[in-house]
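Hey, sorry to bother you again with one of my protein questions. I've been staring at a protein lately and its backbone has me curious. I owe you a coffee for this, so here goes:
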Amino acid sequence: MASVSMAAEAAVPRTRRRWNAAASLALLPAAVIVLVVYLGCMVWTVRLSFSSSKLLPVLDWVGVRQYSRLFANERFLISVENIVLFGVLFIAGCLVLGFLLAVFIDQKVRSEAAFRTIFLYPYAMSFVVTGLAWQWFLNPTLGLQKIVRDLGFESFTFDWLVNQDMVVYTLVIAGVWHGSGLVMCILLAGLRGVDEDLWKAARIDGIPTWRVYLSIVLPLLGPMIVTAVVLLATSVVKLYDLVVAMTHGGPGIASEVPAKFVMDHFFERNNIGLATAAATMMLISVAAVLAPWVYARYIRPQGRRA
């Protein structure tokens, strides 16, 4: 009996090794695709940014000439200003509105599932659909302005969509409407994990509800807030379809963003070198956003365990 049990125990590792080998073999095509397609394309893009490529890619070397041209390009500088303004307001708006929606639903309201679905529904739509819907709603000749004027308020004006100074804020409005549902879901999961004893102790001490949320609940939601910020920030860097659907970068170049600058120089202006330089700067921006999160989430905990 002892020999049988030892043989069975010895067979288990062999079986596991076979399963692990089969799983590794099944994942091999995906790993090859990631290495060749994704990483290969990133390396190729960075390489072309140091070339003089125009209509077709060439492998000459011009140093940082494309980057010098890039940061001397007024259109690119405006796109950077726009994306920074949009990013700050978009992330802040999504966090505030998403938190308020999460607090509202956490009050165990009736039809909670229906409210969750309604608030999350905009995020289920693509940015193209969101942009087209808000483009119609904010169009001075079709949407909000016309509706209010038809009600008798002839002097009402809301022309942000065609106003160069305000058009970026229309993108922020549409973006917050689209992204706040995601933040709501993330923070609602965190609120449901708050110990009920904290609320009981706060009630006994007579602490106002708003103070409990600011001083106790929000610090507990720190990891969820960081996750939401990372997800929102990556969507800010690659912002393209919302702009194309709502404003197409206009009026003029007032709502230009880096992703649209890249696409236009790739496919319309036939300037691959300048486009890849801008794409490389976007890659650096994404890496700058993800690196602290990856370090705090994966690398630092391993260092502590060691």
